[in-house]
Design brief:
globular; alpha/beta; single chain
Amino acid sequence: MCLIDDILKHKSVSVVGMAKNTGKTVTLNYVLEHMAGSGKCIAVSSIGVDGESIDRVTATEKPEITIYEGMFFTTSEKHYQTRRLSAEIYHLSSYNTSLGRLVTAKAVTTGQVLLSGPADTLHLQQLIRQHTQYGVDLTLVDGALSRLSIASPVITDAPIDLERDRCRSVKQTAVSSALFLGRGQNLELSQNTEYVFVSGVITDNLLHYLRMQTYVDKVVLVARDFTKIFASAEAYRSYVRKGGQIQVLYKSQLWLERQTYKYCKFAFVTNESYKKIAIESGGMKPENVFDGYERVCLCKNGKQKHYRVATLVYEAFNGPIPESKELDH
């Protein structure tokens, strides 16, 4: 299955819903069922409470979450005691939630579990790293109502975004695609261009205010990532129609974009970051990915090493490039 195969390429994947009853739990159960025979070690947790038989908000029936034999799961002490399966405890955290400490266990039999994981993204990041110590290949994180923070590329590698209304879903997906990928107009520095970094969230009111300004097309809004953009699809489109631009520091790669690499024999990229994406996420062979830069081979004491000409020119005038930086021009 194409979707399952693609999910398995990541170390962590989040399941988020834009509203109630979008099918998050059904989707998670579907993924878990097909992961059971994948030969991969899977872990699952939640940033909210999920798996209850009755929805506490809408008072409607909900499907329970099924954990299969051999899978890891992390939940609170209270909900671990209500599990309907046999499990072996691997870790009991010192971190306390409102429902007790977090229990990480491995399912010995298949059954149902009520999930209630970390309450914040910081501890969720720590939990995902902890799972890797047990040989976990993939951590699935179930989200809470309209809580997009776990879909941030800083937290999980990739999101599964769900929407109940199909028409609204298509419109919202078009907007989300631009925000997830950080797409927009190119950032071109000039004397008349201003960059505004918003450390908090970008809202409809902010976009409306900027849209009414004379030089809206000269202002580039910069957010940390797409989870900091709370603007509606309508407000976003209105802002863009006026020439407004939004960029993000951390970009997520959508499934459809990764699929394009599968149908390419060669790829030409603009820097090492995109080259890494083409090779690691796109599955392309390194020899088929080109960045278009001229290279030379230098020899010292019989040892050869290849350099990009642009790198040599830069370092001749500015010194070595820091490890955390890369040359892009």
